[in-house]
Specification:
The complex is a heterodimer of chains A (257) and B (415).
Chain A (H helix, E strand, L loop, with lengths): L1 H6 L1 H17 L7 H20 L9 H28 L1 H4 L8 H27 L11 H25 L3 H15 L14 H6 L1 H11 L9 H26 L2 H4 L1
Helix pairs in contact in A: 2-6, 3-4, 3-6, 4-6, 4-7, 4-8, 4-10, 6-7, 7-10, 7-11, 10-11
Chain B lengths: L8 E13 H5 L4 H10 L10 E13 L3 E5 L6 H8 L7 E6 L3 E4 L12 H11 L4 H15 L14 H13 L5 E5 L7 H16 L3 E5 L3 H7 L2 E6 L2 E7 H10 L8 E3 L12 E9 L15 E9 L3 E2 L2 E8 L4 E6 L9 E2 L2 E9 L7 E11 L2 E13 L27
Parallel strand pairs in B: 3-7, 3-8, 5-6, 6-7
Antiparallel strand pairs in B: 1-2, 1-4, 8-9, 10-11, 11-12, 12-17, 13-16, 14-15, 14-18, 18-19
Helix pairs in contact in B: 4-5, 4-6, 5-6, 6-7
The chains are: A mainly alpha (257), B alpha+beta (415).
Chain lengths: 257, 415
């Protein structure tokens, strides 16, 4: 399977390239859209939750607190959605040509990475603007990105396969994502959760990841290696299970879609 | 002589069967329903669904360099066979082995995106069809030249005509250079020039010893292009042999059938006030027997059945004949013949048109029927189709196809 994916690697690239091109081709603001969404959400969150409700931000400047979590969250939610819909959206390809079907969710994950990187550049801008000193923890950032991609891809491929079989998944998916936004420490810090429920934070691999995305950009925070370890283990299991499920349904996809 | 040289098998198919469950394809299952089902009958299996065998025990081999035409009626299993060979769908049982690089062309321009330019779509489509970026780059100029859209190569294809899109899509496919090419009915679309290019491209592959499997309703093209024919009927191989013999046997199977016309009473999207409606179009031989296979050069009677709601004065009946691409070939009606019908009474009736020689080249044509009366349209835009099959019209053994135009004249050469 891996050898076959390697043979089709250019197709992943071209499909992702198509999505990126089409996404920015018709818009006046073009690539700026990648930043507008997290930026305005961050502004709203800072005003609403920071100034009005006064949710603590763990001593991090509000904009950085929200923006650093929103950038990976937006990558995650749009990748799960786009990958989850990718097989249905490309049913024309599915019924007319052979390629390993997993290429479609993979291309969705790759094309969203472009937006993710553009808004990450903006995050760096914020860090300099607020004169946050850089720490060694930043070296963990690429590892976190890989984990984030794997997690989004796991759920994306799982939903994609399920979506071909059961048509109510496409209605359940946005709801699931909305719930997850509140179940993950994005508008609040994980430290707000009472001690006896902290294990729930560790069980949601996205929580650990988002917290970590937040803390690698501020110095002098010690990395919670336990949470990172548990996240890696859960993501690994999810990824293998999702790919195995996808593979088991792959042969019937063209007949069902 | 096949046995005195080592022949490489390109395609090996062993007892191939494919079953489709009807329930599953007709409506999409909801997870909700499945869960309810599981709660209601926790130990029961899935609900029994009706199934059909699209293919049943199909076996054949194709040698390198063979060009095989696959014929059969709609729903016979031809497309399922091509889809299995292309690995799009999987057989229920049986084995398929294809040696070498396979390219399947079940559609022209698969994956084209409206917003992208011609240039961008060439790369995308090439990649989807299995070409490397480097290969597309090497052949890019050739592809653009072949497509004939050089001027518009940097224009988004949403501004292209359907013909341009088709040519661009085929240009990419024609530069694939596969070992085995699988082609489904691409000749059904496109004008004569396009079809000519398709056939030339396939001839090119045949001449360099590539294997081609080719489904078409254009029997003349099959006959001209293929060395071997396979006739599939109801999911089984009915006949496997020389292209000419297979086509003759296939065409013979249409004889003695009762269906020889089209029911027009349910036709949608028609215009007119409905005072008179066409109900049925029958194709008859001059002796009045229904003819289910219409060949080039046949004498043919078209019987138009109609139903009138009330008495309509000064009615006229007529139709226009189009190619599949919408080119008007001919129009005829009562008025052009100087015939005046005073009125039609309420109820059913019919009019007939006798054609001495249907000198159309083989292909699929469409008719647009109309009835007018009392100065207004009663029934219009009623679509019917006409399939014309090949015949040896000049008595020379050479068959006409769409490369030879739309019509031929009843004619003789003097030398």
């Amino acid at each position: 399977m891996i050898r076959e994916l390697w043979a089709f690697r250019e197709l992943v690239y071209f499909l992702a390239w198509r999505d990126v091109k089409v996404r920015y081709k018709q818009t006046v603001l073009g690539v700026l859209w990648a930043v507008i969404q997290p930026f305005f959400t961050m502004m709203l969150f800072t005003l609403l939750f920071g100034q009005l409700v006064k949710i603590p931000t763990d001593g991090i400047p509000g904009p950085i607190f929200y923006f650093s979590a929103l950038v990976p969250w937006i990558y995650f939610s749009s990748t799960v959605t786009n990958a989850g819909m990718s097989l249905l959206a490309n049913s024309g390809l599915l019924t007319k040509i052979y390629f390993p079907r997993i290429i479609l969710p993979a291309a969705a994950a790759l094309s969203n990475l472009v937006d993710f990187l553009i808004s990450s550049v903006f995050l760096v801008g914020f860090i300099f603007y607020y004169e946050v000193p850089l720490g060694w923890n930043l070296l963990l950032w690429p590892v976190l990105v890989v984990l984030l991609i794997l997690l989004a891809l796991s759920l994306g491929t799982f939903f994609a396969a399920l979506n071909v079989k059961y048509r109510d998944i496409k209605y359940a998916l946005p709801f699931f994502i909305q719930l997850l936004l509140f179940a993950t420490p994005i508008i609040y810090p994980a430290s707000m959760i009472p001690e006896r429920f902290q294990w729930l934070v560790a069980l949601n691999p996205l929580s650990g990841l988002i917290e970590m995305f937040r803390y690698v950009v501020v110095p002098n925070r010690s990395v919670d290696w336990n949470i990172l370890g548990i996240s890696v283990a859960i993501i690994g299991v999810l990824f293998i299970a999702a790919v195995a499920y996808f593979k088991s349904t792959e042969k019937a996809m063209a007949d069902l879609v | 002589m096949r046995w005195d040289k080592a022949v490489t098998r390109s395609v090996e198919i062993q007892r191939l069967s494919k079953q489709y469950r009807l329930g599953r394809t007709q409506h999409h299952q909801m997870l909700r329903e499945r869960l309810v089902e599981m709660i209601k009958r926790p130990f029961g299996g899935m609900k029994e669904t009706e199934s059909i065998w699209a293919l049943r025990d199909v076996s054949f081999d194709a040698d390198e360099g063979e060009v095989i035409g696959i014929v059969g009626r709609n729903g016979a299993g031809k497309s399922t066979l091509l889809k299995i060979l292309s690995r799009i769908t999987y057989p229920t049982s049986g084995e398929v082995k294809v040696n070498g690089r396979v390219a399947s062309l079940l559609e022209v321009g698969t994956g084209f995106h409206e917003e992208l330019t011609g240039r961008e779509n060439i790369y995308l489509n090439g990649s989807i069809l299995g070409m490397r970026k480097r290969e597309v780059e090497e052949r890019f100029d050739a592809i653009v030249n072949f497509s004939g859209v050089t001027q518009f190569i940097d224009t988004p294809i949403k501004h292209y005509s359907s013909g341009m899109r088709l040519r661009l899509g085929f240009a990419v496919a024609a530069h694939l250079e596969p070992d085995v090419l699988i082609v489904d009915e691409v000749l059904a679309v496109g004008d004569a020039g396009f079809q000519k290019k398709c056939i030339q491209a396939m001839e090119g592959l045949r001449n360099i010893g590539r294997t081609v499997l080719f489904v078409s309703h254009n029997l003349a093209a099959v006959e001209n292009l293929c060395s071997r024919g396979i006739w599939i009927d109801s999911g089984k191989i009915q006949m496997d042999g020389g292209a000419k013999e297979v086509i003759m046997a296939y065409m013979g199977s249409f004889a003695g059938e009762q269906v020889s016309g089209s029911d027009l009473s349910e036709t949608q999207n028609r215009s007119g006030n409905g005072a008179i409606r066409y109900t049925r179009l029958e194709y008859l031989s001059p002796d009045g027997t229904p003819c289910s296979i219409i060949r080039s050069g046949d004498a043919l009677v078209l019987r138009f059945h109609y139903h009138s709601e009330k008495t309509v004065r000064d009615p006229s009946f007529g139709f226009r004949l189009f190619t599949e691409m919408g080119t008007l070939i001919t129009e005829t009606n009562h008025l052009l013949h100087g015939i005046h019908i005073p009125k039609v009474e309420p109820g059913d009736g019919n009019v007939e048109l006798e054609i001495d020689s249907l000198n159309l080249v083989p292909g699929r044509y469409s008719l647009s029927l109309w009835i007018a009366g009392e100065g207004t349209v009663c029934d219009g835009d009623v679509r019917a189709s006409l399939e014309v099959e090949i015949a040896d019209v000049y008595g020379s053994g050479k068959m006409l196809d769409s490369r030879h135009g739309l019509v031929y004249f009843p004619q003789r050469w003097k030398v």
